[in-house]
Design a protein that fits this description.
6-stranded mixed beta sheet; Udp-n-acetylmuramoylalanyl-d-glutamate--2,6- Diaminopimelate Ligase, Chain: A, domain 1; single chain; 21 strands; Protein-Tyrosine Phosphatase, Chain A; alpha/beta; UDP-N-acetylmuramoyl-L-alanine:D-glutamate ligase
C-alpha cells in the first residue's frame, strides 16, 4: 500500500479511524499474527473459534506495528495502547481502525489495493495441482512482468487478501491461488481478487464430505467462471464435461490438454514443444511428471490470455512439500509430496513413481481426508492401483489408511500407527536405489516421516 495514506486505508476498509493522523503514510502490508507484526505492518484482529485477535492489539503495537484494525469492542483499549509511549514501539502515533467485521474490512482493503495496482490478475483453482500451476505461472511471467503470487498456502478468504496486500506498488501481474472447502467460497475470493483470467486446473472427488457429489464440486469450482467480468478469459481442461454447463459465451474460453487449444506436441529430455492457438512455444522444463506437464499447458493458456509468449527455460520453485525430491544417504531418493492428497493426485503420483527408474518403488501413504461416506472405497481403489502399477512396498500411516489401502494391495506392506513410526520403518527398509513416495492429506502430518 505504498503511497497511500491512513485516510485511504480507512475508507477502503470501510473502517472508523479512532487514533492516528489521516495523512500519515499507509502500511506496507497486513498481518493477522502478532508474532509476524513488524514496523510498517497493519495488524488485523480477526475473530477465531477460540480467541478474538482484537484482544492482542496491544501486543502488535508493542512489536512496532504501524497500526491495528479491530472490532469496536477492542477499539478503546487499542487506542489507549496506541497513545501510551511505553507501549507503542513504532515511530509516530500508531493508527487504530475499527470495523464491525474485521475480515470484511480486510477483504475490502485488499480489493481496493488490487484496483489501485490495476495490473492483470490470474485466479487459479482446481481439485489438485493448483499450487503447482500457480508456481509454474509465476515462473512463466516473472522474466517478463514483475509478478506477485501467494506464499505457500495463503489461498483462503483470509490468505488471499493478505497476499494481495503484500504486493508492491510496481506489481505488473498477480497470480492468485484460490482454495475452497464448500459452496460460495470461490465466489468470495473472486469478489476480492476480481481476476482477468480464471484457471480451473481440473475437477475431482475432493471435499465430498461437505459437497456430496463431484457435480457439486464442479459447480463450486465454476463459481470462478460464473463471476468473471464479461470479456475476461477462462482456461479449462478440454476433456472435462463437468464444466461444460458452466461455460459462458461472453468469455474468451481457452481449453488445454489433449484435443484442446493448448496441447503438448512433444516432450524430450526436458524440452517441451507446445502449440497454443496455432502458435508454437518451446520451453525447457526442470520436471517431467505428466501431471505437471498438464499444469504447464494450463499455465501457458493463462499467460497467452494476457498476450505473453513464454520461451526458454522455466525456473520454477515449487511450494514446499509438493513433489520435493530429497536424496538421502545410502542411495535412497524420497519424493516428499505430503502437503495434500485426493484420489486424483494420489493416482498421478503413484503413476509417476511407477514410471521412474528405481531398484524398488516404495509408497508411504496417509489418509485422504474429506471423502465422505465413500472414503473406504476410495482408499481401497488406490491400494489396488498401487498393486496394478507394480509398487514394490506399501507403508500405510494411520488406522484409516491401513484399513483402506491394505484391502486393495496384495504385495509387501507394513502398517505404521504414526508418521514417526513410518520414518523408523523406512530407516530399516530402505535400500540403495529405492525411490520412496510420501503422500497423504495435510491432516495426516506426513511431513513428520522425514523428521
Amino acid at each position: 500500500m505504498n503511497g497511500r495514506t491512513t485516510g485511504w486505508v480507512a475508507e477502503a476498509a470501510a473502517a472508523q479511524l479512532v487514533a492516528g493522523e489521516p495523512g500519515r503514510p499507509g502500511p506496507r502490508r497486513a498481518v493477522i499474527d502478532t508474532r509476524e507484526a513488524r514496523e510498517g505492518d497493519l495488524f488485523v484482529g480477526l475473530r477465531g473459534e477460540h480467541a478474538d485477535g482484537g484482544s492482542f492489539a496491544g501486543d502488535a503495537l508493542n512489536a512496532g506495528a504501524w497500526g491495528v484494525l479491530v472490532s469496536p469492542e477492542h477499539g478503546e483499549r487499542a487506542a489507549a495502547a496506541a497513545g501510551d509511549p511505553t507501549t507503542a514501539a513504532a515511530p509516530g502515533e500508531p493508527v487504530v481502525l475499527t470495523a464491525a467485521d474485521p475480515l470484511t474490512a480486510l477483504q475490502g482493503l485488499a480489493r481496493a489495493w488490487r484496483r489501485e495496482l490495476a495490473c492483470p490478475v490470474i485466479g487459479v483453482t482446481g481439485s489438485t495441482g493448483k499450487t503447482s500451476t500457480k508456481d509454474i505461472l509465476a515462473a512463466l511471467l516473472s522474466p517478463r512482468l514483475r509478478t506477485h503470487c501467494n506464499r505457500e498456502n495463503l489461498n483462503t478468504e483470509i490468505g488471499l487478501p493478505l497476499t494481495i496486500l503484500e504486493a508492491g506498488a510496481g506489481t505488473e501481474a498477480m497470480v492468485l491461488e484460490m482454495a475452497m472447502r464448500g459452496e460460495g467460497q470461490i465466489a468470495e475470493l473472486v469478489s476480492v481478487a476480481e481476476p482477468d483470467v480464471g484457471v480451473i486446473v481440473n475437477v475431482g472427488p475432493v471435499h465430498l464430505e461437505l459437497l456430496g457429489t463431484v457435480e457439486r464440486v464442479a459447480a463450486a469450482k465454476a463459481e470462478l467462471i460464473r463471476d468473471l467480468r464479461p470479456e475476461a478469459a477462462c482456461v479449462v481442461p478440454a476433456s472435462e464435461p463437468l464444466l461444460q454447463a458452466h461455460l459462458r459465451e461472453d468469455l474468451d474460453t481457452i481449453t488445454f490438454g489433449p484435443g484442446g487449444q493448448v496441447m503438448l506436441l512433444s516432450f524430450d529430455r526436458g524440452r517441451a514443444e507446445i502449440e497454443a492457438r496455432g502458435e508454437l512455444i518451446n520451453l525447457e522444463l526442470p520436471y517431467s511428471e505428466p501431471y505437471n506437464l498438464l499444469n504447464t499447458l494450463a499455465a501457458v493458456g493463462a499467460v497467452k490470455a494476457l498476450g505473453v509468449k513464454p520461451t526458454g527455460r522455466v525456473d520454477v520453485r515449487f511450494s514446499s512439500l509438493r513433489g520435493e525430491v530429497v536424496e538421502l544417504p545410502g542411495g535412497v531418493t524420497v519424493v516428499n509430496d505430503c502437503y495434500n492428497a485426493n484420489p486424483m493426485s494420489m493416482r498421478a503420483a503413484l503413476q509417476h513413481l511407477a514410471e521412474t527408474p528405481a531398484q524398488r518403488r516404495v509408497a508411504v501413504l496417509g489418509t485422504m481426508a474429506e471423502l465422505g461416506p465413500g472414503s473406504e472405497d476410495f482408499h481401497r481403489e488406490i491400494g489396488k492401483e498401487a498393486a496394478a502399477l507394480g509398487i514394490d512396498v506399501l507403508v500405510t500411516v494411520g488406522d484409516e489408511a491401513s484399513a483402506g489401502y491394505s484391502r486393495g494391495f496384495d504385495g509387501e506392506s507394513y502398517a505404521a500407527a504414526t508418521p514417526e513410526e513410518a520414518g523408523a520403518l523406512l530407516e530399516e527398509l530402505g535400500m540403495p536405489g529405492d525411490r520412496v513416495l510420501i503422500k497423504g492429506s495435510r491432516s495426516a502430518g506426513l511431513e513428520r516421516v522425514m523428521a
